[in-house]
Write a structure and sequence with these properties.
Blueprint: H1 2-34, H2 38-41, H3 56-59, H4 63-74, H5 76-79, E1 101-104, E2 110-112, H6 120-134, H7 139-150
Antiparallel strand pairs: 1-2
Helix pairs in contact: 4-6, 6-7
Length: 163
């Protein structure tokens, strides 16, 4: 008779117990997915120039190129601290901003460079800078990442180190 109770317990109680435990794990997992993490709640918005501020060749470019131009124009203080590794130093470029902007006139008007529109390395570097800034990485860390990731392609522009 005791064996019969044990068999009934095994057949009925064990599955109910396991189902209950599984249900708790599922509910706990669901709660974790529904509860936003601080990173998910706080997203860094990057400064981007309006698309209308770009020249025609950049406005008509694919989104990643267009966004790279928009970022470069709106963040010259960042882009002048990032070297480029596409070989453009031989063209006189001193930093990544030079791949996007030839000159800024005293009245604030921008003379754009179309170099980056046709150079994947320039755009990739800028996209990486954007991504790392969204992750709130310090500029010195971003610079180190760019140096490590892109130094295999060409000599860098003559961009001073970040102090």
């Amino acid at each position: 008779m005791i064996k019969r109770y044990f068999d009934l317990l095994t057949v009925f109680a064990l599955p109910v117990l396991l189902l209950g435990l599984t249900g708790c794990a599922i509910n706990e997992g669901a709660m974790q997915r529904l509860t936003p993490t601080p990173k998910a709640v706080h997203q860094v918005e990057l400064a981007l120039a309006p698309q209308s501020a770009l020249p025609d060749f950049a406005q008509e470019a694919e989104p990643r190129i267009r966004d790279a131009y928009r970022f470069a124009v709106a963040n010259p203080d960042v882009m002048t601290k990032i070297p480029c590794y596409c070989g453009c130093g031989t063209m006189g470029h001193e930093h990544a901003l030079d791949c996007f902007v030839k000159d800024v006139q005293p009245n604030g008007s921008i003379e754009f460079d179309n170099h980056a529109a046709g150079c994947g390395i320039c755009v990739d570097i800028t996209q990486d800078v954007m991504r790392l800034m969204r992750q709130e990485q310090p500029l010195k860390t971003i610079r180190a990442y760019v140096d490590a990731e892109y130094s295999q392609f060409a000599a860098p522009t003559n961009t001073p180190a970040i102090e």
